[in-house]
Automatic annotation (TrEMBL):
It is an enzyme of class 4 (lyase). Residues 19-263 form the MmgE/PrpD N-terminal domain. One of its GO terms (molecular function) is aconitate hydratase activity. It comes from Corynebacterium meridianum. PANTHER family: 2-METHYLCITRATE DEHYDRATASE (PTHR16943:SF8), 2-METHYLCITRATE DEHYDRATASE-RELATED (PTHR16943). Residues 285-471 form the MmgE/PrpD C-terminal domain. Monomer. Its EC number is 4.2.1.3, 4.2.1.79. The lineage of its organism: Bacteria, Bacillati, Actinomycetota, Actinomycetes, Mycobacteriales. The keyword Secreted does not apply. Pfam families: MmgE_PrpD_C, MmgE_PrpD_N. GO terms for biological process: propionate metabolic process; tricarboxylic acid cycle. This is Aconitate hydratase. Belongs to the PrpD family.
Length: 501
């Protein structure tokens, strides 16, 4: 890997195009290096993972809205598939629908470093364009490998949330780069597409603050849609603001650290394999990733604590991010509100820890149900829980060494008689270094579990057979990656008002 220094440059300063971050990323995207076997296998795992969470979310309202938007845009030229339904639709709208289905339940993969990300968000737009253009499975694998690589590398080196910019600002460029690889585009086209994609996908973090709405699911899907449109314009010869990150009025100067800030972005050198997907990790539980280890910890502690009415207070000592984003450091009263949206409860570690303690389990629907959130004993326990930032957990959150990197917490449970029960868990059980790391078997089991009652057994079998031979799929065969649902299943989706289309 090569470390690239990225900083603001004055307009009058000599700054050769070859030094622009967008150009360096474009060169990574156009590098013809092959994908190693372990990266290839993990890409298949993550396509299965995305299908699993899409099956679980397909009948929810935001996903139904996105699907209906997409199916209002059929096409007779190329086209892509929309999860759950037959037919071909405009690729960018299919990407929006499928991306929303993947993101809705906050249940797919994650990578956390200087910034946060869900790199599986790269998959829907890259698959949509691959279907539209009749690409091969081999090309799709190469495109996804690039999308993961660029997003992970940007996340390693450039913090967005410190400046209240949403993490999808790294997704637009990564999807554009992945599409460049998929389509065998030249440096110039990819460079311009990256600039456009970044310019059109920067937004504030209010989508993840306060009363969190369904836009949280649409936001990354919209970034993927914008990246597709950016690539289309760039292929037609249109340009982008440049230098997009480093310009005097660019992203760094006015949205991030300011004119004096400097970032270091690691990127693969020419001929270096793209392996970043191997540093990412999926979720066993449908909740913010920093909740994964605390859920496992709560399940482990509940027998030691016993009668939860004896609890006086619970303090979760954890990282800066967990404390300020999903903990009491956020100062969001909505995180203690039984009437809060599912998206808000998903970002309340206090609620999540309380329910996991009571139930010894976590479920993507039952754990968020309104009647579950309104249980008087749950509310009482929930409001006894607080978070504390611990410098050691913050250090481990940002650690470079994978054996040190951790996203867990230490729980201190004080009982009414003064007894203190403590325990800690650094990483989730499903993490690659955890007690029960996910491998192909676990990804398939997650898919089978979430698809039950939604996807027929025959359709499950067909999809799993196809996806596991992805590298052998020829041009025009990638439509087989789509899963279709029976009409009676789709009929269970909620009715939604008519829109423009």
């Amino acid at each position: 890997m090569e470390n690239i220094e990225v900083r603001t440059r004055r307009s009058a300063e000599e700054f050769p195009r070859g030094e622009h971050l967008a150009q360096r990323i474009a060169e990574v995207a156009t590098d013809p290096v092959e994908v190693p076997d372990d990266t290839r296998e993990m890409i298949i795992n993550r396509i299965i993972d995305n299908a699993a969470v899409s099956a679980a979310s397909v009948l929810r309202r935001p996903v139904s809205v996105a699907r209906r938007q997409a199916t209002a845009h059929p096409t007779n030229k190329g086209g892509a598939r929309v999860f759950g339904v037959p037919g071909t639709y405009s690729a960018e709208w299919a990407a929006l629908a499928n991306g929303t289905a993947v993101r809705e339940l906050d249940f797919h993969d994650t990578f956390l470093a200087a910034e946060y990300s869900h790199p599986g968000d790269n998959i829907p737009p890259i698959v949509a364009v691959a279907q539209h253009r009749g690409s091969t499975g081999h090309d799709l694998i190469r495109g996804i490998a690039t999308g993961y690589e660029i997003q992970v590398d940007l996340v390693r080196g450039m913090c967005l949330h410190e400046h209240k910019i949403d993490h999808v600002a790294h997704l637009g460029p990564s999807v554009a780069a992945g599409l460049g690889t998929l389509l065998h585009l030249d440096d110039e086209t990819v460079y311009q597409a990256i600039g456009q994609a970044l310019h059109t996908t920067t937004a504030t973090r209010q989508s993840r603050k306060g009363l969190i709405s369904s836009w949280k699911a649409f936001a990354p899907a919209y970034a993927g849609k914008m990246a597709i449109e950016s690539v289309d314009r760039a292929m037609r010869g249109e340009g982008a603001p440049a230098p997009i990150w480093e310009g005097e009025d660019g992203v760094i100067a006015w949205m991030l650290g300011g004119p004096d800030a400097s970032y270091t972005i690691p990127l693969p050198t020419a001929g270096e394999e793209k392996r970043a997907i191997l540093d990412t990790f999926t979720k066993e539980h449908s909740a913010e990733y920093q909740s994964q280890a605390p859920i496992d910890l709560a399940r482990r502690m509940r027998e030691r604590i016993g009668d939860l009415t004896r609890v006086e207070k619970i303090e979760l000592h954890t990282s800066h991010h967990t404390h300020y984003v999903i903990g009491t450091g956020s100062n969001d009263p909505q995180k203690f509100d039984p009437d809060a949206s599912r998206e808000t409860l998903d970002h309340s570690i206090m609620y999540i820890f309380a329910v996991a303690l009571e139930d010894g389990d976590w479920h993507h629907e039952r754990s968020y149900a309104p009647e579950r959130a309104h249980r008087p004993e749950t509310i009482e326990l929930w409001r006894k829980i607080s978070t504390v930032e611990d410098p050691e957990w913050t250090r481990r959150y940002h650690a470079e060494d994978p054996n040190e990197k951790a996203f867990g917490c230490r729980a201190e449970v004080t009982l009414k008689d003064g007894t203190v029960i403590t325990d800690e868990l650094a990483i989730a059980d499903a993490h690659p270094l955890g007690a029960r790391p996910f491998a192909r078997e676990q990804y398939i089991n997650k898919f089978r579990t979430l698809a039950e009652g939604v996807v027929s057994a025959d359709e499950q079998d067909r999809f799993l057979h196809v996806v596991q031979r992805l590298d052998d799929l020829g041009a025009g065969e990638l439509d087989q990656l789509n899963i279709e649902l029976a009409d009676d299943v789709l009929a269970r989706a909620p009715e939604t008002p008519e829109g423009l289309f």
